[in-house]
Amino acid sequence: MRAFGIVADGGAGGRRRPSRRRVMAVAKSVELGYCLLEEGKSAVDAVEAAIVFLEDYPDFNAGTGSRLQLDGVPRMDASIMEGDRLRAGAVAAVENIKNPIRAARAVMERTEHVMLVGEGARRFAVASGIEEGEVRTARRIEEWKRNLCKEHKHRQLLESIYGCETVGAVAIDRQGQVASGCSTGGALFVLPGRVGDTPIVGAGIYADSSIGGVSATGLGEDIVRVVLSKSVLELMEKGSSPRMALRMVMNRLEKVTGGRAGAIAIDGRGRVGVWHNTEFMSYAYRMSGRKVKMGAGVK
């Protein structure tokens, strides 16, 4: 029987060890996705379901829990890709959408485009029946005001960027289709309209069913510079295991850019890889015939 399963992450680079509640939430998202795969649903369905759950969980920097940019407005990015035909969809700098990953899937399946941005992306999402949602919760606004008034040191600024708690997932289904996706509220205090790696195919995500799939998390600018997800798949195509390929690309990222990131991957044989050069990274995965495994990714 062909191996099937799913891996998900809750972001790399937080300043503190992820709470058990946050790790359990990632594990729950994996169980939701795995149940769909077990029923015979597609890898795209599983990835979307896992990420929707995490977007709705306010502890993560995606969907409902999105960070506020410098002007106090949350702008979200998301993407999804299926590896059979290399179809992909993404939204960037979109506001007031409850689940950006659903909008990204709509772009992939209902248009000839790969990415929509800003107000155009929001209007398309609403027209496609995607639920609207006010992200600026009272807790996020107070956090934004409190932190904005502080005199940040350089390290604190870096930590606010790295501590993203963005979310991602990669799955392989019973038919061998691979899909990957990710969703983020970006980084705290960035310039309005800033877009990181999440919606960029080849950087934040990539999926090719003949090889595998990857989803990245961390400082987006550096992930884009090394085209992280596509670079990992190229090494996997040459025979590297997902874990080895992730480690090699992450080492290059750190050496060349000084960047900090994490990523998850699955190959066509159902092997899972998790790697990060940050101190923490919450993740969970479950493959057919096995129980769910989870961790905080402590280095």
TrEMBL record:
Q: What residues correspond to the site Cleavage?
A: E165, T166
Instruction: List the InterPro entries hit by this protein, alphabetically.
Output: Ntn_hydrolases_N, Peptidase_T2
Keyword annotations for this protein, in alphabetical order, are: Autocatalytic cleavage, Hydrolase, Protease
Q: Name one GO biological process term.
A: proteolysis
User: What SUPFAM superfamilies does the database record attribute to this sequence?
Assistant: N-terminal nucleophile aminohydrolases (Ntn hydrolases)
User: Which Pfam family is an annotated match for this chain, by its short name?
Assistant: Asparaginase_2
Superkingdom of the source species: Bacteria
The record's Gene Ontology cellular component field reads: cytoplasm
Query: What residues bind substrate, as annotated?
Result: R194, V195, G196, D197, T217, G218, L219, G220
Listed GO MF terms: hydrolase activity, acting on carbon-nitrogen (but not peptide) bonds, in linear amides; peptidase activity
Annotated active site: T166 (nucleophile)
Q: Does the keyword Hydrolase apply?
A: yes
This protein is called Peptidase T
Taxonomic source organism: candidate division TA06 bacterium
